[in-house]
Amino acid sequence: MRDLTAKNGALLTFDEVKTGLTAGPGGVTQASGITPDIVTLAKALGGGLSCGAIGGTAEVMGFVADGSYEQVGTFNGNPLTMAAARATLEVLDDSTYDHLARINKMMVAGAEQIVDDYDLPAYVVSVGAKGAVAFAPTTVRNYRDFLAIDDRTGHAHWLFQHAGGVFLPPWGKAEQWLISVQHTEEDADRFLTNLETMAKAIRS
Q1: What CA–CA distances, in Å, run from 68 to 9, 12, 16, 38, 60?
Q2: 99, 139, 159, 195: most buried by Cβ count inside 10 Å?
């Protein structure tokens, strides 16, 4: 995509609303080693508070800087979101990312073991501090595959987690966990215990 867009005079944008700061300090941009023309960030930048940012090459952002393009937005320069972003960036150092990686590795390994032990038609997906148990027998590669997932297991998982004190997004198909600096190994254990309780119930 980088080569194609450059060859045809188009801009390459990385939408890092979901991955910026959570997939690592530089998001997918850093992990891939690819420099897009524009990057978008969202509430992870504000520690969960409604927040957003755009960045880009000097050439692209120059149009904003010189007034050729008027970049406006509801939260532009908002004191609360800027304070939240500053506090978040001060917290997200190397030790924080080491902590996130350790907890996430524990959750991924534990979930994969439960999927194998109980022969569940599922697999584990993880990027940075995010992850999920995808309740599908084969890898979801596109939107059509996504629509074909049976929702019942995902909803059951949500109920078992909720009853066990873990609050996940209620849709159950996509992202399920997002580890923060506040989460501990005990939190990971609770998630895994709830997942195994559900697996036992399915196989009983």
Answers
A1: 19, 20, 25, 17, 11
A2: 195
- CA angle at residue 125 from 95 to 35, to 5 degrees? 65
Residue 173 and residue 154 in contact, taking contact as beta carbons nearer than 8 Å: yes
Cβ atoms of 119 and 201 closer than 8 Å: no
d(CA 183, CA 171): 22
Write out the two tokens for 58: 């000097």
Phi, psi for 164 (deg, rounded to 5):
-95, 10
pLDDT of residue 170: 78
Number of neighbouring beta carbons within 10 Å of residue 132: 23
**∠ Cα 53 57 61 (to 5°):** 60
Nearest to 178 by CA among 88, 100, 83: 100
CA angle 105, 108, 109 (to 5 degrees): 85
Q: How many angstroms separate the CA atoms of 13 and 2, rounded?
A: 10
How do residues 29-38 score in pLDDT, each as one tens digit? 999 999 999 9
Separation between Cα atoms, residue 195 and residue 133, nearest integer Å: 9
Question: From CA 75, how far away is CA 72, in angstroms rounded?
Answer: 9
DSSP 3-state percent helix, strand, coil across the chain (nearest 5): 50, 10, 40
Domain annotation for the chain: domains and CATH numbers: 2-91 (3.40.640.10), 94-203 (3.90.1150.10)
